[in-house]
């Protein structure tokens, strides 16, 4: 279990994380979601004691990271895959890490097999592809067989097979009762992997909810209608709290009415419907809406002052 | 049971925690598994011995020619140390700065979050490896020079005054310079930064003090790492220089101060 209480980190006059409180529970995969620059990596570094909080506190299983007798056995982490000396082989890197905590050679071989690096384990890590680097980072995280696992953007740079592998691995780790905390800026990825979401933007907490609830609450559900007579149907549907828009010829996107209501009204007026389907907002959209004000760098837009922050 | 689950769950004995011995073992693995460690160390060894032989030959064959007095002293064949100190210093810098330039430091500090054991373990491993390598090296450099000097009839032996002290002190001096390089690398966290700083301290600062007018500048010079070191390893006592023992002490104080600065910064800074 990871508990952050009023966690704040400032670098000079820039606030990276502001008054962040959350709890990450064991047994499920918890997604840590936010646009780039939202403070996810900073928060993870504070969990591991690499960065000291300006104020507030974060503990893992009740203790500060550094206070654990064997931190590697308590928390396994991958913060950016490239936290590895490029001149050393994967195996030697893992052996050096394992030695700090008295973890044996057998466990090193085990994690190498587990992440599928067996054939390249004796190659210098500098020659690794991005995906191999990610796998080595994950092997490093699993070395101490920890009850808590923290991964920063683990699917970055992985091919589809690798992404699938990570997804299943995370679920398996959570099913074994571990605390699994995974950051991503990709909502769609989290929707497939995580059960719970902690959403941050500009260093502050935006939402702390189960994934299902997040989708339901944030979605602006609409109905797509195709008809040979869009003008008449539009007149029929327009009303208080109903918006009708049309992006394609013969197609209306309606919010504020259910499929039943639209279908009955059209039938009553004798208008043929070629399609009548509910459209659930994609998670990506929901995420974008939520964090619209919290994106650090925007490509363009009228509110330039916010961009500069 | 999957391969991920703890296999020793039923064993009551607690699993080992993070320890200083573990940190030392980890740093030893790190040192020996980098090709560059051995390459630079080998270069220093070769430099000491080859230059020793060269000095022995040149000095022996020109004994009655135009030679400075310090070319004839017992410690003269050990002057390969001027090159070796740069190589050993770079090795000391790299052992630390390599962690920062590659990002490895984050893995290292995550494994040993108290941090101080990492610095001490690195210094211990580095100090032992270089000392064990350099003591035979300085003996060999001296011996190689003697092969030539004896050939020309001007050889000396280990029993000559100051010979043994110079040979051992040269090895110790090089180790201490390497540790100074490590400390500087902890402070600046960069390879070029650490090397530049070390070269400045060893080669540039003494020259600046040398050209400054006034006796005070000359007095200060004796306390710089390179000059204090020279008092320690050289057979020749220059005017106003420190005694060998005082030279060693001053050098150790320099290294200790740099390490203390490194410790303070390492504990306070974000990884």
Q: How do you describe this structure in short?
A:
The complex is a heterodimer of chains A (309) and B (271). Helix content of chain A is 35%, strand content 25%.
Explain this structure.
The complex is a heterodimer of chains A (309) and B (271). By secondary structure, chain A is of the alpha/beta class. Chain A folds into 2 domains: 2-217, Rossmann fold (3-Layer(aba) Sandwich); 222-279, Alpha-Beta Plaits. Chain A has 12 helices and 13 strands. In chain A, the strands form 3 sheets. A 6-stranded mixed sheet of chain A has the order 5-6-7-3-8-9, sandwiched between helices. In chain A, strand 8 (196-201) and strand 9 (204-210) form a beta hairpin. In chain A, helix 3 (90-100) packs across helix 4. In chain B, 73% of the residues lie in helices and 0% in strands. Chain B has helices at residues 20-32, 35-61, 69-72, 81-102, 104-111, 116-151, 163-188, 191-211, 215-221, 225-233, 244-268. In chain B, helix 1 (20-32) packs across helix 6, helix 2 (35-61) runs parallel beside helix 6 and helix 6 (116-151) packs antiparallel against helix 7 (163-188). The chains are: A alpha/beta (309), B mainly alpha (271). Chain A binds chain B through residues 45, 48-52, 65-66, 69-73, 77, 79-80, 82-89, 92-93, 95-97, 99-103, 110, 113-114, 140, 142, 145, 172-173, 176, and chain B through 2-6, 15-19, 22-23, 25-27, 29-30, 33-36, 98-99, 102-107, 109-114, 270-271.
């Amino acid at each position: 279990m990871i508990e952050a209480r009023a966690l704040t980190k400032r670098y000079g006059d820039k606030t990276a994380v502001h008054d962040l409180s959350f709890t990450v529970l064991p047994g499920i995969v918890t997604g840590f979601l936010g646009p780039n620059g939202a403070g996810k990596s900073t928060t993870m570094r504070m969990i591991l004691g690499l960065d000291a909080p300006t104020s507030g506190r974060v503990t893992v299983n009740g203790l500060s990271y550094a206070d654990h007798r064997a931190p590697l056995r308590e928390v396994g982490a991958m913060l950016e895959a490239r936290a590895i000396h490029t001149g050393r082989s994967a195996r030697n890197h893992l052996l050096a890490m394992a030695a700090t905590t008295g973890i044996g050679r057998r466990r090193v071989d085990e994690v190498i097999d587990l992440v599928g690096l067996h054939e390249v384990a004796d190659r210098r890590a500098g020659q690794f592809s991005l995906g191999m680097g990610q796998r080595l980072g994950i092997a490093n995280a699993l070395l101490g067989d920890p009850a808590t696992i923290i991964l920063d953007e683990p699917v970055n740079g992985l091919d589809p097979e690798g992404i699938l592998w990570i997804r299943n691995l995370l679920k398996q780790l959570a099913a074994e009762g571990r605390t699994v905390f995974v950051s991503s800026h990709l909502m769609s990825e989290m929707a497939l992997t995580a059960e719970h979401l902690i959403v941050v933007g500009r260093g502050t907490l935006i939402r702390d909810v189960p994934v299902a609830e997040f989708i339901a609450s944030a979605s602006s559900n609409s109905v797509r209608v195709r008809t040979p007579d869009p003008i008449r149907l539009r007149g029929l549907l327009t009303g208080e709290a109903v918006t009708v828009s049309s992006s394609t010829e013969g197609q209306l996107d309606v919010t504020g009415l259910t499929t039943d209501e639209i279908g009955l009204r059209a039938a009553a007026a004798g208008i043929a419907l070629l399609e009548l389907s509910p459209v659930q907002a994609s998670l990506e959209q929901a995420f974008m809406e939520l964090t619209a004000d919290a994106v650090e760098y925007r490509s363009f837009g009228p509110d330039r002052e916010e961009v500069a922050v | 049971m999957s391969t991920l689950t703890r296999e020793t769950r039923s064993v009551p004995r607690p699993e080992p925690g993070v320890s200083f011995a573990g940190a030392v073992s980890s740093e030893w693995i790190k040192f020996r598994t980098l090709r560059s460690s051995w390459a630079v160390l080998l270069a220093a060894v070769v430099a000491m011995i080859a230059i020793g032989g060269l000095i022995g030959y040149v000095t022996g064959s020109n004994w009655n020619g135009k030679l400075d007095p310090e070319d004839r002293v017992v410690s003269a064949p050990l002057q390969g140390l001027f090159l070796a100190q740069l190589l050993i210093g770079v090795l000391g810098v790299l052992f630390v700065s390599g962690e920062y330039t590659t990002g490895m430091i984050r893995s290292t500090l995550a494994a040993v979050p108290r941090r101080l054991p990492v610095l001490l373990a690195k210094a211990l491993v580095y100090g032992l490896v270089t000392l064990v390598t350099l003591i035979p090296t300085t003996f060999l450099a001296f011996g190689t020079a003697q092969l030539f000097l004896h050939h020309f009839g001007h050889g000396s032996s280990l029993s000559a005054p100051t010979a043994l002290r110079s040979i051992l002190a040269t090895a110790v001096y090089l180790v201490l310079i390497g540790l100074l390089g490590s400390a500087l690398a902890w402070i600046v966290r960069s390879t070029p930064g650490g090397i530049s700083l070390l070269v400045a301290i060893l080669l540039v600062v003494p020259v600046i003090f040398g050209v400054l007018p006034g006796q005070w500048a000359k007095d200060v010079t004796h306390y710089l790492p390179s000059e204090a070191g020279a008092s320690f390893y050289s057979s020749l006592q220059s005017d106003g220089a420190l005694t060998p023992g005082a030279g060693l002490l001053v050098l150790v104080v320099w290294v200790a101060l740099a390490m203390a600065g490194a410790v303070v910064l390492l504990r306070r800074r974000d990884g």
